[in-house]
Design goal:
The protein is of the alpha/beta class. 39% of the residues lie in helices and 22% in strands. Strands 3-2-1-4-5-6-7 form a 7-stranded mixed beta sheet, with helices on both faces. α6 (128-134) packs across α7 (170-195). The protein is globular, with a radius of gyration of 16 Å. The model has no long low-confidence stretch (mean pLDDT 97). It binds 5-O-phosphono-beta-D-ribofuranosylamine. Belongs to the GART family.
Length: 196
């Protein structure tokens, strides 16, 4: 099985997954490895991190495409180019800041995963930490879920919860949530690999 991870920025979740795959020997235990890291941002810092880890990288600038569908089609072709014939592929969105078309999502149905920085179904979309603070929530967290055409609403695979502290800013809360993301995403992927 090979894993392709899509990023748009720092790639800290990607790195956590790559490190877990090496530490837990996913190749031997699940016949799985991270085959490539692809970004829609040509300057995404995560691309350098992936290359340092010996992972193949690619970037597709979404601004170079006439439509969302054209970008998604090119992205799918690139992802599929890393597939091993006859082997299932797992596509992981990790800080990937693009809304994907239903055609793309359906092409990878059941094997497309995302991590969202809130306790879904609360706070789908953006600025989740500020919204949780503004709502007076006492708890926040992250959710790993299968991706369906409806944004941030697919079947939940894993969640982590953190407290919202009285003097939290969106930044301090984001850091607390991100550290939990780095734990639950690799664990959720390993669980998926065990059943694939
Ligand atoms: C972070 O806001 C994280 O909560 C979300 O995507 C953003 C960037 O993550 N999942 P990463 O460092 O690029 O993995």
């Amino acid at each position: 099985k090979n894993i392709v991870i899509l990023i748009s920025g720092g790639g800290s979740n990607m790195l956590a997954i790559v490190k877990a795959s090496k530490r837990e020997n996913w190749a031997a235990n699940y016949q799985a490895q991270v085959a490539a890291v692809i970004s829609n941002k040509t300057n995404a810092k995560g691309l350098a991190l992936a290359a340092q880890q010996g992972i193949a990288t690619a970037s597709l600038d979404h601004k170079a495409f006439a439509s969302r569908e054209a970008f998604d089609t090119a992205l799918a072709q690139r992802i599929d180019s890393y597939a091993t014939p006859g082997q299932p592929q797992l596509v992981l969105l990790a800080g990937f800041m693009r809304i994907l078309t239903p055609g793309f999502v359906n092409h990878y149905a059941g094997r497309l995963v995302n991590i969202h920085p809130s306790l879904l179904p609360a706070f789908p979309g953006l600025h989740t930490h500020q919204r949780a603070i503004d709502a007076g929530c006492k708890l926040a967290g992250a959710t790993v879920h299968l991706v369906t055409p409806e944004l941030d609403h697919g079947p939940i695979l894993a969640q982590a919860v953190v407290p919202i502290l009285p003097n939290d800013s969106a930044e301090t809360l984001a850091a607390r949530v991100l550290s939990q993301e780095h734990l639950i995403y690799p664990q959720a992927v390993a669980s998926l690999l065990q059943v694939q």
